[in-house]
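Ticket #4471: structure export looks truncated?
Reporter: QA, pipeline team
Priority: medium

Steps to reproduce: submit the single chain below to the structure queue and open the exported record.
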Amino acid sequence: MNRLEELRRRHASADEGGGPERRERQHAEGKLAVRERIDLLLDEGSFEEMDKLVQHRCDDFGMAGR
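Actual output as written to the record:
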């Protein structure tokens, strides 16, 4: 896989917001996903996401495996 394909894959993965199972669980709890809330709050095309692909490096409280 070349670098551009990998970048596109990572962007698509980030856009999924944890995947369909996570979204279904959020909806079952009466909650919206983050990007769904942003879409409701802001005008279309006015939000520019920065650092979308940043991954945390925290290992406190068992977060290293997340």
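Status: closed, not a bug. The export was complete when the record was re-opened. Leaving a note from the reviewer for reference: The mean pLDDT is 87.
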